[in-house]
Amino acid sequence: MSVADSPSAVTSTPLVCVADLERAAADRLPPHIWDFLAGGAGDESVQALNRSALDRLRLTPRVLSGGTATTAGRLLGHETAMPVAVAPMAFQRLIHPDGEVATARAAAGAGVPFVLPMLSSRTLEAVAAVGGDLWLQLYWLRDRGLLLDVVRRAELVGCSALVVTVDAPVMGRRRRDIRSAFALPPTVTAALLDGAHGRELHRATANGSALVAHTAANFDPSADWSDVAWLRDSTALPILLKGLLDPRDVALAVRYGVDGIIVSNHGGRQLAGAIASITALPPIVAEADGRCPVLFDSGVRDGADVLCALACGADGVLYGRPVLWGLATGGGTGVRTVLDLLRDELREALTLAGCPSPAAARGLAWASV
């Protein structure tokens, strides 16, 4: 029986930290699916760098702030329970039968946006039906007609933003997937794309990864800023670019009408040798200078990490792999447990740092040691 067809186990003990769920998810999932979820590009040193760079950050707390902090904030003009959105992560039916529907429902219950991956294993319409604040991730498809069709569907179902991943002109070399000859089982499909655009996903290839073959056939490595202009002219939805690390790209993003920036190295899954996302964040915040929101992604594990990102100038954070650990171990209930834990940790971190709200975290002094 595949993971996509098997029932979920619900955690039987109180969750103290998400690292407990990481171990449980690794034990539960078949090795090739765990490697797809956990792996990175090359020797995976960028993943380790994301964590070590966050771990080196130290904050100087304030005192006598007058009570317990609130975690409530705003993202793209919408009220949120905390300044966090669930990051786009592909093919969630590999992890649980309900896949992205379960994750979206948990995010809605937790009061945070859910970024539906373009490589979703549930349809856009099925995910939108659960309610909540839904954003849609896009890749630059060679088939611009199909890309525009997905955008129109997003508009019809009420998505509130488009998140264009711009750091994946080609797929990063992920050694774990190559070694396992990763391919999707027949029960899991790229549900937002038609069958002709997803057939490569079910066949292992000469280099060992069906995902590489799929992206090579369907993603457009020639995309440039003129494509951003085309998309901006094609929709009134807010557009965020995900994958910026160089401040020089900020001015271009603003010039082409982008509504937000997500500082990200794709969780260490794209360029082997990239800088840590948290290292890139302060210079990008300085360059943006309030002209558009700046969000942070890659390596976030707990509320203290969220606080560090806010102190470094981020307006919000995307939360990734721990959500899938919750999905693997408890389905939608597991995801909600992870998000509730994150909110509790953030509230505690804000309170201990003397910040009455997430917005106040920008006033914290910080240093990398």
Automatic annotation (TrEMBL):
All residue ranges annotated as the FMN hydroxy acid dehydrogenase domain in the record: 10-369
GO molecular function: FMN binding; oxidoreductase activity, acting on CH-OH group of donors
Entry-linked CDD domains: alpha_hydroxyacid_oxid_FMN
Ranges in a coiled coil: none
Residues holding glyoxylate: Y139, R174, H266, R269
Keyword field: Flavoprotein, FMN, Oxidoreductase
Requisite cofactors: FMN
InterPro entries, A to Z: Aldolase_TIM, Alpha-hydoxy_acid_DH_FMN, FMN-dep_DH, FMN_HAD, FMN_hydac_DH_AS
Pfam families, per the entry: FMN_dh
Active site residues of this protein: H266 (proton acceptor)
Binding site for FMN: P88, M89, A90, Q137, T165, K242, S264, D297, S298, G299, V300, R301, G320, R321
PROSITE patterns: FMN_HYDROXY_ACID_DH_1, FMN_HYDROXY_ACID_DH_2
The family this protein is said to belong to: Belongs to the FMN-dependent alpha-hydroxy acid dehydrogenase family.
Name used for this protein in its record: Alpha-hydroxy-acid oxidizing enzyme
Species, as recorded: Streptomyces fuscichromogenes
Biological classification of the source: Bacteria, Bacillati, Actinomycetota, Actinomycetes, Kitasatosporales
